[in-house]
Amino acid sequence: MKKFGTAAVFASIATMALIPTGAIAGGAPDGKCTKATPKYCPEVKKGRMTGHGHFIDSELGKIQWEFRNMVCNSERFPDLKVEWGDNRFKLTDYTSGPRCFDTPYSEGRPLAGFDTIIGAGTGTLNGEPASVTFQFTDAGEPGRADRATITIMQDGEEALVVDNVVASAGGNHQAHRASAK
Ligand SMILES: [Ca+2]
C-alpha cells in the first residue's frame, strides 16, 4: 500500500485541530466563538453545503475533496470523497453531525446563515475500513479562500491530515439555506 503522508499548510501538526467524535456536541458555555473554534459559534439547524476543492501539497501532490450535498443535522446522505495520489476515501456513514455553525467567517452571497459544517464518519480508504473527521468552511467568493480540515484514520493511524488549508488550487464551498434549491 502506498505510504500515506501528512499535509499541513498553515499550521504545524502540533497545533492541528482534530475533531474528536463527541467534542463537537456542544461547547463550554464560556467558549468564545472564533474562526478557530466554530463549535462555540451559533448553531444553525437547517441548511446544507455543497463543495469541492483541492490544493497541491509539496509532499503528497494534489489533494482533493468533494461533497455534493452535506445536510445540517441529517445523516441521510453521507457524501464525501477525498483523493490524493492513488488513495481514495469514500464516506459511507456519519457517526457525528453534520452540524452547521455561523462563525466569524462570512459565506458571502447568497447568505445562508452559516458558513461552517463539521462532522465525522466512517467509510473506506482504498476499499478498507477507515474513518474521517471533517470541517469545511465557506469563506465567500472566490472559492479559493474556502477552508478544509480533514483527518482520515485507518488501522489506528493517521492516513491523511489536512489542517485548515484553503482550496488554493481551485474549488468552492457553498453554504445554502434550507429552502434554497
Ligand atoms: Ca465559497
Cα-atom Rg, whole angstroms?
A: 15 Å
* Mean pLDDT score: 86
Distance separating the two termini: 41 Å
Helix/strand class = mainly beta
Q: Can you give the helix content as a percent range?
A: under 10%
Low-confidence stretches: 8-25
Assess the beta-strand content as a share of residues: over 45%
Written description of the protein model:
By secondary structure, this protein is mostly beta strands. It has strands spanning 43-44, 48-57, 61-71, 81-84, 87-101, 116-125, 128-137, 147-154, 157-166, 170-176. Strands 1, 2, 3, 4, 5, 6, 7, 8, 9 and 10 form a ten-stranded antiparallel beta sheet that branches. A hairpin with a 3-residue loop joins strand 2 (48-57) and strand 3. Mean pLDDT is 86; it is low at 8-25.
Features:
181 residues, mainly beta, 10-stranded antiparallel beta sheet, 0% helix, globular, binds calcium ion
Short summary of the structure?
This protein is mostly beta strands and 181 residues long. The chain contains no helices and ten strands.
SSE order and pairing:
Blueprint: E1 43-44, E2 48-57, E3 61-71, E4 81-84, E5 87-101, E6 116-125, E7 128-137, E8 147-154, E9 157-166, E10 170-176
Antiparallel strand pairs: 1-5, 2-3, 2-10, 3-4, 4-5, 5-6, 6-7, 7-8, 8-9
Bound molecules: calcium ion.
